[in-house]
Amino acid sequence: MLYTILSKITVITFWFLIAPFSTPRYITGKEHIRNLGYPFILAANHEARIDPVVIACIIANIQKTLNDIRFITYYKFMEMPILGWYLTQMQCFKVKSKQGLGILNPALTFLEGQQGAVGIFPEGVVVKKTEKDRKAKRGVGYLAYHSKSPILPVYIQYHRKKLLPGYWIEVHFGEPYQAVTSQDSEQNLEQISSRILAGIYDIPN
User: Fold this and answer.
1) How does pLDDT run across 9-44, given as a tens digit for each residue?
2) What is the pLDDT, as a whole number, of residue 151?
3) What share of the chain is helix, strand, coil (3-state, %, to 5)?
4) Partners of 169 in the beta sheet?
């Protein structure tokens, strides 16, 4: 119940208070998510801390309904006052460095139960568009390999407004696809993750 209420508040807050300054302006691939069912793995590049809110609220606006997308979140954010409470109530999945891929098992169980979607940033950290050394961590490959859930690739980019405060946001939704092939195994999770990340950066090209 609280999860649903906070989801509604988040969507309303974004469109009325945040969007006038961080404004979604150029969105492509809407046809890929209008009738997209669960489960799926939302995999996106990571340019800003607000990325999860932006992407989830845009999807909710396109689908005309609240969506159940729960994001993988670094544990330090979930230990912060207020923000930590909010992230916990939004049922984000907490991860911590050097804890092994098993820390993602709650998210994997969620996907296997076909209850909703899991959002993850393959790079694990915020990476600005000027940074060329982009490397995917194994987490998204682990989720894709074990859950067999389709990948929804998302590319997001921010452009500073010239005459107004804030940013224009462009979001590109790629076509959902199965990232795991019959040749993949537990031993090449890094390669699976790298393919997924490469596909994200290829969307706007």
Assistant:
1) 999 999 999 999 999 999 999 999 988 889 999 999
2) 98
3) 40, 20, 40
4) 24, 158
Identity at 86, one-letter amino acid code: Y
Secondary structure (3-state) at 35: coil
Sign of the four-CA dihedral 141, 129, 56, 90 = positive
The contacts of residue 99 (CB under 8 Å, 6+ apart) are: none
- Sheet of 167-173, strands arranged across: 22-28, 167-173, 151-160, 40-44, 117-120, 69-74, 93-95
- Taking the C-alpha atoms of residue 59 and residue 36, their distance in angstroms, rounded to an integer, is 10
C-beta atoms surrounding 138 within 10 Å: 19
Confidence of residue 129 (pLDDT cuts 50, 70, 90): low
110-to-45, 93, 118, 168, 170 alpha-carbon distances in Å = 22, 10, 8, 33, 29
Count CA within 13 A, CB hemisphere, residue 156.
Answer: 27
Q: Which residues contact 22 (CB under 8 A, 6 or more apart)?
A: 50, 54, 158, 166, 167, 169
